[in-house]
Design goal:
Helix content: 40-55%
Strand content: 5-15%
CATH architecture of the largest domain: 3-Layer(aba) Sandwich
Shape: globular
Low-confidence stretches: 132-138, 387-413
Largest sheet: 5 strands, parallel
CATH superfamily of the largest domain: P-loop containing nucleotide triphosphate hydrolases
Number of strands: 16
Oligomer: single chain
Length: 460
Amino acid sequence: MSIREILVVDDDSLSREFLVEAVTSLGFKATQAKSGEEGFAIASSTSPDLVVTDLRMPGTDGMQLVKRIHEHVPGLPVVMITAHGTVETAVQAMSLGATDFLMKPVTPETLKLLIERVDRSQRLERENRYLRTEVGGSTELIAESPAMQETLRAAKRVARSKGTVLITGESGTGKEKVAQYIHKESPRASGPFIRVNCAALSETLLESELFGHERGAFTGAHKTREGRFELADKGTLLLDEIGEISPALQSKLLRVLEEEEFERVGGTSTLRVDVRVVATTNRDLAAEVQRGAFREDLYYRLHVLPIHLRPLRERQQDVLPLSKHFLRHYAAQSGMEVPKLSRDAEERLKSWTWPGNVRELENVIQRAVVLMQGDTVHIDDLVFGPSAGTNKVSGPQGVVVDGLNMSLANRALADIEREAILATLHSTGGNKTEAARRMGVSARTLSNKMKLWRRLGLVA
């Protein structure tokens, strides 16, 4: 449970002392305030995890306190407790930002149930916020080759246990997809699946991302923040590119894996979590251990249930099924019919060595879908390797386009569409939802086009 400190606000000393005693008996830290003004001051300066307030108080009453906290300390849950409640009062309190509502007399048992309910609600909200920040994409696994089928069978076997899984393989082979598959097939499937890219953050930021931080722990830490381990409680945490973390963080991670407990950055309270860790890496961690770059004890703690993903060049039977999967995916994104693959395109796809693995294949198909002519992907629509983003080739009718063949008519239409969208975005002050409404397309379609143009270097 992530609720640890509860602020009790009540002007009646007997009622306040009873609530404080009940909160303490349930294992939580209790802070108390005898007025709405004092309660707001404490809530805004110390950031408790939950506020329990009486309704009728002189000066700033419960309703006003709920409103002020909702406006000035957003995200802090507040529960209203009163002996004078009605349905109308409850509705008003909830509309002002209250999380829940209880009638007096309150027993420790009802208080415990309420705290658990608020904690579950807050956890779901945090998980949803996190998921909304993640880039969406297809999670379907394609396994036609014997090598990939055996990998999935192994993943299904290890999914049943709680042991730590280490997924190895070259960059772009689909390690994250296998991690998601393990979570989906595990007893934790109903819990959260949380991901953190260890290679994308500095040591300080990664520590805060993993373990969270307390308010004031460092410059810019204006409020307490939960880390990914807390968010992943009762679920799965994917540590992507685990080989990139620093020796200091390796030590702290080892402790969490061994003892299932940690402290937030700047904190003193020890937190316990129930998390299944799946780690991925494209490095040879055994070799890293030999040269002293990775802790041996952490390696063996991670290497409990190893899974290795073969590169795409060693599972050629997956190339065409994956290609057709990506064709369906990106055609659906663009609202178009699923294109066909010509025979020469199929042969070219099968003969390429795929140094970038599945990620490269997806990129090749995505570009072909967006910029092909007609309803069929031909060999000229496929651009491989570094030339996909840098080479200039002459397309039909002598039009030169970066890395792609394109007719003059298609190029003109693409330019017109892009200029129209950019002009509409400019007129709406960058509001994508309003721009999409004006142009008669979905906000998702507009967003996908902008993402593609940025990848192609067509917009800033």
